[in-house]
Every structure is written in C-alpha cells, then in structure tokens.
C-alpha cells in the first residue's frame, strides 16, 4: 500500500493473497477482516462484476460456509 497505493491492482492482489495466507495459518479473524477489505476495495476500484471481484466474494462466502466468519 505504501509504495503502490491502495488502489493499485498489485496491492489488491497482495491483500487477497495475504488473507489466504492468514487463513492457511489458522489466523481466521485476520483473514476474514483482510479479505472483507479486499472485497470492498476491489468492488470500488474494479467493479462488482469484475472476475477478480467475483472470485474474492466467492472465496469469502466459502469461508462463511466453513464458519470462519467470526465477526
């Protein structure tokens, strides 16, 4: 974020990847929080119908089905 800015596509991808890493480490609260922020930003920047946005929404929804949505 600091180097490229919050709206840069590489930043959005890195945020989503970090959320996936957190989930893999069992850091579910951090994962859900970061993925939710990734979905919010990606929706604003790329649009709700963009394939990347839809993939992040699908990932977050699957976590909710796995009961990882702790908030």
Annotation keywords:
TPR-like_helical_dom_sf; mainly alpha; globular; 71 residues; 0% strand; Kinesin light chain; 70% helix
Q: What does this molecule look like?
A:
The chain is built from three helices and no strands. With 71 residues, the chain is mainly α. It has one domain (9-65).
Quickly describe the structure.
The chain has 71 residues and is mainly alpha-helical.
Number of strands: 0
Quaternary state of this entry equals single chain
Helicity range of the residues?
Answer: over 70%
Sheet with the most strands? none
The helix/strand class is: mainly alpha
Estimate nothing, just give the exact number of structural domains. Answer: 1
Weakly predicted, low-confidence segments: none
What percent strand? under 5%
Q: Kindly state the mean pLDDT as a whole number? A: 90
- In angstroms, what separates the terminal alpha carbons? 24 Å
* Topology order in helix (H) and strand (E) letters: HHH
Q: Rg from C-alpha positions?
A: 12 Å
Shape: globular
Q: What is the overall number of helices?
A: 3
């Amino acid at each position: 974020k600091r180097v490229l800015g919050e709206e840069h596509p590489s930043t959005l991808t890195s945020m989503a990847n970090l959320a996936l890493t957190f989930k893999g480490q069992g850091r579910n609260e951090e994962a859900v929080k970061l993925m939710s922020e990734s979905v919010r930003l990606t929706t604003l920047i790329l649009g709700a119908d963009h394939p990347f946005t839809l993939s992040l929404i699908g990932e977050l929804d699957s976590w909710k089905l796995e009961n990882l949505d702790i908030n």
